[in-house]
Amino acid sequence: MKSEITMAESTTTAKRDVTVDLGCIELTGSLVHDDEHRVLEIENAEGPAEPISISLQGYGLTPEPGNVFIKDWSEHSGLMARLAPAGLVKPVHALTVGPFGSTAYEVQVTL
Asked: Cα-flanking dihedrals φ and ψ of residue 28, to 5°?
């Protein structure tokens, strides 16, 4: 009897040599999307990975497959507006979250 070994399909994609403008700084590295965990981050040789996405599970929200949430406050103010024209994400819809009515976006990752 012949046994088959199947490998789980990877849910992680990456795009190398991407520069992400975080507003106060620009980081260049690999933009990595882990679809299983709904995480988008930039990895570079200068330090730990910088998160681009945010979890909103505390509000009972989970993005659709292929999507992540990006906050539009604090250090990430205007981030989605800079990522979309670069072709890295495509806005799906805006959400209002938290006690201060902050805006977050569900975006499709388009690496």
From this structure: -115, 135
Are residues 84 and 94 in contact, defined by beta-carbon separation less than 8 angstroms? Answer: no
pTM over 0.90: no
- Give burial (CB, 10 Å; 0-12/13-18/19+) of 28: middle
C-beta of residue 107 within 8 angstroms of C-beta of residue 88: no
10 SS3 class: coil
| Model confidence pLDDT, tens digit, residues 59-111 | 999 999 999 999 999 989 999 999 999 999 999 999 999 999 999 999 999 98
Q: Please list, in sequence order, all residues whose beta carbon lies within 8 angstroms of the beta carbon of residue 41, skipping any fewer than 6 positions away.
A: 31, 32, 49, 50, 51, 52, 53
Q: Which amino acid is at 105?
A: Y
Pairwise CA distance, residues 74 & 8, whole Å:
37
In DSSP notation, 91-106 reads EEEEEEETTTTEEEEE
As a whole number of Å, the end-to-end CA separation of the chain is 42
